[in-house]
Amino acid sequence: MLAARAVAVGFTLIAVAKTMTSVAATSSETRGLHASASRDAGSGSPRQRLQKLLAVPGYNPSRVNDLLLLRPETDGQSGAESKEKSSNRHVVFFHGDIQNFQEEMSVQPEGAQWLRWSLEQVALTLGQRFPDRHIWVVRASRMYLHKFSCYHNFVESNMFGAPEHSSYSPETAAFRHLRSLLSHGMERANLPNPLQPQGGADSVPSGFALTLVGFSKGCVVLNQMVYELSGARADPRLSHFIKRITDMYWLDGGHPGGSETWVTDKQVLKEFASSGVSIHAHVTPYEVCDPMRAWVGREYGYFIKTLDEFGACPSKKLHFEDEPPSIENHFRVIQEF
């Protein structure tokens, strides 16, 4: 297992090195972004709707994550009813390796090459995909060597972010952490009618709806939630929250471990299929057609096939199938899904 993980990590770094663009070009792009933001001052531009919330606590006060919030655009033509509806619809995004806040990526030799996929840029991209929702980007609580995202607040992981999935535990559950994280984030951002950190049906605001999106390494959080689903649905403190999850998107999931890139436990998938959540899987050849990590493609196929057998009818798409596998196309799935 450790040898497989080492090979996978090495391959990832080689792929990154081979596909990097020049720092000078990226720096020029960054200057253009700042100039654009200055020109838009006072116009309610998307960048002005971004808010960084640092060290937001989850269920356990010692487990904190930084959040980036993009508020939905209001054009003055939507009435009070529409505004109320949008204020309770949310998208949560879990990023992959390399990705970080723009200011931090810009000072790292590898991160600077990929500034167009910074957390701020991704939030803006998702804002175009979901224009009537609040977009929440959850920054991994640790970035080992400034590049390996580790979501240990959601799932037990090694230093490279490879997960060790487990069933539901009330004290360490990913669902409980996410709920409290959103609740405290909404409170800090002064959003109206916020989600309560815990409780039954009356603690979930009217019209609240949640979409979860994982990209690359960020998919380990979605996987952990699938493993937890049976126990969490039986917990009255979480069941009403979980019922408000409408969609879950896997975007080219991958991590440096040698297995469990996709959920393959048949009983776990049976429970997931019965949840009523709309399931979406978008992949690229970079992950599912890599001969050095052939298990990723096999697991993806089993994930889709098993959910189909249980009647979940997941939507799926292989993007860029006629192009050579590349990390650039791996990132581009964020735009294309």
Automatic annotation (TrEMBL):
Segments for region (Disordered): 25-47
Signal peptide per UniProt: 1-25
Cellular component GO terms, alphabetical: mitochondrion
Keywords from the UniProt entry: Signal
Source organism, top-level taxon: Eukaryota
Entry annotated with the keyword Heme: no
This protein's name: Chromosome 2 open reading frame 69
Top-level taxonomy: Eukaryota, Metazoa, Chordata, Craniata, Vertebrata
